[in-house]
Specification:
The chain has eight helices and 33 strands. It is α+β, with helices and mostly antiparallel strands. Helix 7 runs parallel beside helix 8. The two termini are 39 Å apart. Bound molecules: alpha-D-galactopyranuronic acid.
Length: 570
């Protein structure tokens, strides 16, 4: 399932996870052949999953069809997909329900008057690229295909609560909050209906009203402000979650919220009024046997490793992560940076300036901000990664995304990961400056060049009049092939990687300009030569654990340092 807890007690939810019929469609003729009504041939695969882990399909890029037969008691049904990579067209008994673009966010379709009995759900999945794809074909990870997160059917009855966004403002002393909630209602019944709508926070009723809706009507209701006192703050490694429950006569929607305040002031990042040093790591959701379709046990294992290492934050490079993982972070008090898959190296300047591409990325930000809004763990939104932010073509995109997230993203800092360190013209569009720098790995500069780099950037920041903006080292690191050791200081060995990371971390920790670090990267990840990058083993080997989560020397080096930094403070 996509969450760690049941989102409904009243609403009937049927999981469609499990075995689905599957058929690759390399000639893209399934529509003409009537696959929407049901697949005539094919094998079986597991959903959630990626097709690339099926034998013979590792590098299949194209169209594929999925089919699931299910039983329902009928009525109004909501078909909910956790994520489909990359484009999905969904059909019920051959009738198109709609489509969705973008591989990392949830979407759903509501269908009325479904008859009781058996039905066929088919999904046409397309993971090909075009000129406006996000991401573009060239990426430094593996471009999988498939239904990668859970699918479920919800049976909607009467007036239902389909969505809730919870907003709050904390008092200056952080002990009280003024809150309101935005609730989207839908009448699934075939006639005008009335319900008693109630909102509970941690079991206490904070709002109630009678609501009337016509058959099939949708309505957004914003509750009046209400106050909560004696707030238990959600904090780093000290999470306090409040249960949120919207209840109607026939339906309910359960979520959670945590009260915390994140700020960037005077070159520092503050959580709940205290300066925090981000001790982080970049993590791709990738595993050789599962691709991006992570079972929860594996997410938990990754999180255990991250916590054991002394991290207090994870960057979800380079796309919105599974909500079950975010639930785990909410529950453990680990901070999260969430971004959309605009991975700059693949984008030509004219593509970045293309209004259709900007709009497609904005739609992804809208979805991310909407569905991830209530997660307290998300404290940073990332607008894009390593685009040519030194060029005027990047300005409009940066500006629009920044302004959108500031207005609609809740209490979060907005940033972008810049590799145009000295030359970016987009630093106006971030609250925190984030730098991706690979001194000691790419190019010929030795590790000792880091000190000079930090000083140059300090001057640059002053020159830009941005000394009030905190600086985060959002990427740095180097590759090590697991098990490769020498007596010499060779790039590619575990020894060199451990030395590089320890050198950088000590330097950044001692530098008052640097508010935090995200090591590149958590685990070795699969890459694909045909996507334009040629990596040893066809893996990006900069993980501090390998792809099976076996620790390299650097893991132990980072662990010792991050635990020491946690004790020392910045
Ligand atoms: C970039 C990029 C990462 C990864 C890294 C590397 O900074 O953002 O996704 O490709 O470089 O390993 O070179």
């Amino acid at each position: 399932m996509n969450r760690l807890f049941d989102e409904h007690e009243k609403r009937a939810v049927r999981s469609l996870d499990g075995t689905w019929k599957f058929c690759a469609d390399p000639q893209d003729e399934g529509e003409a052949r009537g696959y929407a009504q049901g697949l005539p041939e094919g094998t079986h695969v597991t959903v959630p999953g990626v097709w690339n882990t099926e034998l013979g399909l590792l590098d299949y890029e194209g169209v594929a069809w999925y089919e699931k037969r299910f039983f329902t008691e009928g009525g109004t049904l909501r078909f909910r997909f956790g994520a489909v990579m990359t484009e999905a067209k969904v059909y019920l008994d051959g009738e198109a329900l709609g489509d969705h673009y973008g591989g990392f966010c949830q979407f759903d379709f509501v269908v009325r008057d479904v008859t009781p009995g058996y039905h066929v759900l088919t999904v046409r999945v397309d993971n090909r690229f075009d000129a406006r794809s996000i991401p573009q074909k060239k990426v430094d990870w593996y471009h999988y295909g498939g239904i990668t997160r859970s699918v479920s059917i919800e049976r909607l009855q009467g007036i239902c609560a389909l969505y809730q966004q919870f907003d709050y403002t904390l008092s200056a002393d952080l002990t009280a909050a003024v809150c309101h909630s935005t609730i989207e209602l839908y009448n699934a019944a075939g006639r005008k209906s009335k319900t008693r709508l109630r909102l509970f926070v941690d079991g206490a009723e904070v709002f109630a009203a009678d609501v009337f809706l016509q058959a099939g009507e949708s309505k957004t209701l914003i509750t009046p402000d209400f106050s909560l006192s004696d707030i238990r703050l959600w904090d780093v490694l000290a999470p306090q979650l409040y249960d949120l429950r919207v209840v109607t006569d026939t339906d309910d929607l359960i979520d959670r919220v945590g009260f915390r305040l994140v700020e960037a002031k005077e070159g520092k990042i503050l959580l709940n009024g205290r300066e925090i040093e981000l001790r982080g790591i970049n993590r791709h959701e990738d595993h050789p046997d599962w691709g991006m379709a992570f079972p929860q046990g594996l997410m938990k294992r990754d999180l255990d490793i991250v916590l054991n290492m002394g991290c207090n934050t994870v960057r979800g490079s380079h796309y919105p992560n599974s909500r079950a993982f975010l639930d785990m972070l909410d529950e453990t008090g680990v901070l999260f940076w969430s971004e959309i898959p605009i991975w700059g190296c693949g984008f030509a300047p004219e593509t970045l300036a293309d209004p259709a591409v900007i709009e497609r990325g904005l739609a992804m930000h809208r979805e991310m901000a909407r569905y991830y809004y209530n997660h307290p763990s998300i404290v940073i939104w990332g607008t894009h990664n390593e685009i040519r932010s030194d060029l005027p073509e990047s300005v409009e995109m940066s500006k629009q995304y920044y302004e959108y997230l500031k207005a609609n993203g809740g209490n979060r800092l907005v940033t972008f990961a810049s590799n145009m360190v000295m030359d970016s013209i987009c630093y106006a569009y971030c609250d925190v400056i984030s730098l991706n720098v690979y001194i000691g790995w790419y190019g010929s500069k030795p590790l000792e060049a880091w000190g000079g780099f930090l000083d140059s950037f300090r001057h640059k920041r002053a020159e830009l009049g941005m000394e009030h903006k905190a600086v985060v080292m959002s990427e740095f690191g180097g590759a090590a092939i697991y098990g490769h050791h020498t007596f010499d200081d060779l790039k590619g060995t575990e020894e060199y990687q451990a030395k590089l990371l320890a050198y950088c971390l000590e330097l950044f920790h001692a530098d008052p300009m640097i508010a935090g670090t995200y090591i590149w990267q958590f685990c070795d990840i699969r890459t694909a030569p045909q996507m334009g990058l040629d990596r040893a083993r066809s893996y990006n080997n900069k993980g501090i654990v390998n792809e099976y989560r076996r620790p390299k020397m650097s893991y132990h080096a980072v662990k010792a340092l991050y635990h020491r930094f946690a004790k020392e403070g910045k």
